Amino acid sequence: MTILTIDIGGSSVKSAIYTGELLDQKKFDSPKTLSAMQAQLDDLIQSYLAHYPVDTLAFSVPGIANQTTGRVDGVSSLRYIHDFDFVAYFKEKYQLPVFFENDANCACKAEIHLGIAGDVKNALFIVIGTGVGGTIISNGQIQPGEHAYGGEFGMMLVDGHRELSELGSAVHMARKYSKNKGQEFTGEEVFALADAGEKEALAATDELYHYLALGIYNLQYIIDPEYIVLGGGITKKADLLPKIQEKLAEIMNYGQRCPIMPQIQVAKFGNDANLIGAALTAQGK
């Protein structure tokens, strides 16, 4: 089985051939419109088909992968992805089997089957990218919830009116910092400026760590998992866990009786988890 696996995200689209490992990985920035996305995906798929015997297409998508209608439902940071018949479009164009799954669920599947969570029955996966998504694992199974919104942790209001997807995202942090500075900065650049001691960057990253820790704290006491796994691009930052744990220690002293410190781990596969999980979905896992 030669699977072309594609991870569609709010900031970028990643792809690879999966035959048990990821081969020939590519990446492009997510375009601004649906027509541009379709055109770039078609060019990408054709480039793989010219060099590999692809027999299956697998997608990791933001939002809810509706397995009945073949559409991407719910809400996501890539709004136009919800505006067309996703599976039907690619099936008709390429006459190949097409599979798709929510991005956080894909990351979770990679970790359950091949990563750090194989022996864990109850866990949370939080994927931090342009927004924040997640997955609830209970008794070893993904729990989608009554309306398939289980794990949409990014919709949690963490300051009374703003969502964790905004306040817990390095992408949104960088956008806010850029607006204040009058020029464009990436999340990586803001982190580097903070590491160098730049005052406004320090304030921006401190706020980010606080809200991530607050979200983790709330989820620990609502769902009480064995541990919480963090995934997404931000996990490449070596001091991410110490910073979040520092903020958690502060939150634990706000006055509540808090006997359980959340146990946090970083996903094994990092940014590759969504690609691997989409391929595993195509394999029936």
UniProtKB/TrEMBL annotation:
Pfam families: ROK
SUPFAM superfamilies: Actin-like ATPase domain
InterPro entries: ATPase_NBD, ROK
CDD domains: ASKHA_NBD_ROK-like (cd24152)
Gene3D superfamilies: 3.30.420.40
Family: Belongs to the ROK (NagC/XylR) family.
PANTHER family reported for this sequence: ROK (REPRESSOR, ORF, KINASE) FAMILY, SUGAR KINASE
Protein name: ROK family protein
Organism: Enterococcus lemanii
